[in-house]
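=== RUN LOG ===
request id: a7f3
mode: sequence -> structure
chains: 1
length: 429
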Amino acid sequence: MNPAQCEQLAVTIGDLLAHPDAPSLPTRQPWWRQSLALGVPGIALLHVELAAAGLRPWQRAHRWLAAVTGGPVTVGADSHPFHGAPALAHVLACAAAHRPGAYARAQDELDAAIAADARRRVATAHARIDAGGLPALAEFDAIRGLTGVGAYLLSRPSSDQELRAVLEYLVRLTAPLRHDNEVLPGWWTGSGPDGRADDRFPGGHSNNGVAHGIGGPLALLSIAALRGVIVDGQLATITTICAWLDRWRSETDAGPIWPYWISRPQLHGGSAPTGRAQRPSWCYGTAGLGRAQQLAGLAVGDPVRRAAAEDALTRALGDPHQLALVTDASLCHGYAGLAHLAHRAASDASDETAARLKGLVPRLLNGIGPTETEAHRAAAALLGDQTHPGLLDGAAGVALAALSCGSAAPTSSAWDSCLLTMPAIRPLT
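=== RESULT ===
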């Protein structure tokens, strides 16, 4: 898919999602208005980017932003980075980056609520560590936890104190924790990967993913350091997490892979599942972890780690056996997400690797399927029954990735900061 085709696909999806009250949309679902992952905020983000690129009018973006803010907002314990106040605030911040001064009052109110919730979450997490308990994934992960909260705080200069408190907590999270007479990594959770008790994971697991595991904290700690926000122990913590990933790396003919998670029996045995092809994606696997380790190498000044991470990412995204396991177009775990990761990693890679990654982007986007003359049909197919048309699994996320990959200039709004995939060096605005 070439840049013109990327743009046409994004515009066509936006046109098919022009009206927030369209009868085909799941407007009656309780999550619809506040879910960045599934609903209105993610679609509003697409319209903000289309307007900022001059491809569609700001009036349409304002219409969707009004749908975001036109009702009660969930705050506190029932909110999280992809639902409620933090989700809505992320979209408004991206819009304000293109239109300075817009939405300032709403943004200030949301920021106050998010800062208060961040302080509460950090205090609760420290109390849990003091008591020797294991964390829930939702305490620290990028989707529901403090890593995701920290990703938003990183974009808000007024939230420096709360951001540093989150980073200090993540440093403490990685300290070994004694539980049931055994020393475990501090992020070891007693549940299965879905956050609930699971007979397949007796004794819990260590989650390695960017979405729900230790890959997310690694990315946030690294990006914060690259932006000059560093707390005591932060750089050492980046190295600690990387050492854990080194321990469980498996070599394959197509390069290294990392298991999605480590169970208690695997921890006791000291070995991961045998190295075999697995799906690379943003949420789990080599694509997201390769990007996170590239950021880590940049943050701690380790060119060897950076080069190894870029090589792992490049090889995974060019391996037909791994790509054969990718079954959809989504941003979370499909071709759009892989193309976006390649595009973002290329912006921070060495010249040689950047060229290889850029060369992969069109082929990865071809996994979505359209040609320039088929954009409407491809967009309609992506929307399907429009049950979940939003950012992570839906057409809006695919459109955002296509728009970003098709542009020579990086977006100034950092719409993907909620995914911790934004460029490493460029300051957030």
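=== NOTES ===
The radius of gyration is 20 Å.
The longest helix spans residues 104-130.
=== END ===
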